[in-house]
């Protein structure tokens, strides 16, 4: 067994963050130690972390390396020692099973990230449309982009909220809905086209 694999499979990122002094709230959010954070921007999950403000992200070993300014190998050794792991001994059955499931978990995580970034971009576009195409006079026929913004903004914000703050079950449900029939990929393709045609609103 390799040290990195054992450490990643055995040590929960959120738990390690807390042991190392990061105060993670019950939404999984914390003040980011990697930039001057005033409102919690660091999202800490069981197997990785991500800062929505400065973009820092990684797994439990990256986190430890970054926090203590260590090379990855030394960070992994520190974790193994702080959490009393013995990488040379055979892994407990539960952890071995967890490692086999990892690819599925990774897939889910990738889908989650994709959904989040596409929805976030969609939200930005709708906010822009809501302003830019708002009717100028009450008798104007509303532009279809304005109508879409009115209908879809609350929806997009709701989905983002779940992805950001929901528990793993809620996030999983949302991701599976959004990926059904390739919805999120189609939205991504559409956003690319819109970006090509539009200039961002400057006011
Ligand atoms: Zn940050």
From TrEMBL:
Family annotation (InterPro entries): DNA_primase_Znf_CHC2 (IPR036977), DnaG_primase (IPR050219), Znf_CHC2 (IPR002694)
Keywords of the record, alphabetical order, are: Metal-binding, Zinc, Zinc-finger
Q: Which stretches make up the Zinc finger CHC2-type domain?
A: 29-80
Q: Which Pfam families match?
A: Zn_ribbon_DnaG (PF01807)
Q: Which GO terms describe its biological process?
A: DNA replication, synthesis of primer
Against Gene3D superfamilies, the record matches this protein to: Zinc finger, CHC2-type domain
Keyword Flavoprotein present in the record's keywords: the answer is no
Q: Which domain of life is it from?
A: Bacteria
GO CC terms for this protein?
cytoplasm
Keyword Zinc attached: yes
Q: Which GO terms describe its molecular function?
A: DNA binding; DNA-directed RNA polymerase activity; zinc ion binding
Question: What name is this protein filed under?
Answer: DNA primase
């Amino acid at each position: 067994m390799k040290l990195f694999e054992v450490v990643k499979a055995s040590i929960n990122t959120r738990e390690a963050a807390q042991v190392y002094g990061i105060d993670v709230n019950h939404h999984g959010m914390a003040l980011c130690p990697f930039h001057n954070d005033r409102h919690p921007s660091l999202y800490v999950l069981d197997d990785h972390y991500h800062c929505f403000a400065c973009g820092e992200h990684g797994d439990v070993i990256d986190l430890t390396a970054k926090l203590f300014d260590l090379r990855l190998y030394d960070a992994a050794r520190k974790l193994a020692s702080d959490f009393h792991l013995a990488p040379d001994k055979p892994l407990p059955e539960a952890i071995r099973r967890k490692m086999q499931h990892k690819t599925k978990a990774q897939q889910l995580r990738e889908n989650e990230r994709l959904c989040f970034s596409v929805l976030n971009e969609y939200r930005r576009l709708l906010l822009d449309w809501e302003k830019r195409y708002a009717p100028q006079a009450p008798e104007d026929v509303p532009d279809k982009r304005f109508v879409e913004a009115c209908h879809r903004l609350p929806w997009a914000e709701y989905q983002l909220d779940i992805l950001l703050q929901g528990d793993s079950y809620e996030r999983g449900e949302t991701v599976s809905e959004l990926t059904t029939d390739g919805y999120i990929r189609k939205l991504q393709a559409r956003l690319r086209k819109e970006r090509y045609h539009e200039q961002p609103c400057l006011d």
